Amino acid sequence: MCARTLIILPILITSIFAQSFRHNLTGGYYDRGGNTDYKYYNFGWSTVANGDIAIGGLTLKDSEFLLAFDKNVSNWQGESYEDDQNLILKFDLWANGKISPFMMFETSFDKLQGIKSRTNYGVGAKWRVFGDMFSISAAFLNESEETISKSSIYVYTYWSGGDSLYVSDIKDNKDLKPKTFSRLSIRPKLKLPIGENFYYESQYYYKPAGDDVLTNWINKLTVKTKADWLDIVISYKIKNDNLPAPKIFRMYDTADTGRPSSITFDSNGKGSSILYDKDPTQSAKDGLGDYYIQNYKKNDSTLSIGINISF
Known about the structure:
This protein is elongated.
């Protein structure tokens, strides 16, 4: 069924180019120099086509095509700091009906969460509970994920002069492979006009895959201006991954015969304790090898203020 989705989508896209499109462009920028050298920008673009789509002798009534792209980038002291991106391709059949089946494809990455690549595709349906104000969507997805931490095995050796452990080597983790699995996605969505010039939208993604659960709560307040083509947009997002990606793999130097048994990551002599979230038993159980692993943080939030241009 998922393979058919990837075959059918390009056919639909070719037919959709005959439709009229609505475009939205969003963006924001922040730059601070002097004592702090920090630059940040975000960019978003989406296009939507609605109407009846003809494919040969077949007409798909009341259909909607969506292509959306979002990117955030920042630099701190001349070095890359924040870098995340998301691309969604979605086709809805009977988009304005009570029940609307859809096909979708999504690909993303997030440097600060340790996600090098996350791609999913599948099929689902949307139920309009209260007209255009409140709806619930659900989809069955096939997902592949690859994390960044392939060159992050830190080897620790005992230093008698400082009576503590130090990093003596950094090695590649050749056993860390991309993962493929199935995921369920459930998304309630609220659209709420507030007076004539304000519009609030909130959607909450709940994506379980066994014990691995992703959530993403997206809130957006749109302030209309006197220009029909220009809005001010305030966005607040909260992401959570209850099984975050591994960030650093730690291990003791197997060739180090001089380390006292009392010197460990938890009790590092005259040095500070060395943090980890999983011990080798937990790490091996999760299929990540016999390491002490420090993960990326579970929660990640973003507040942005920018403009939206419609054309």
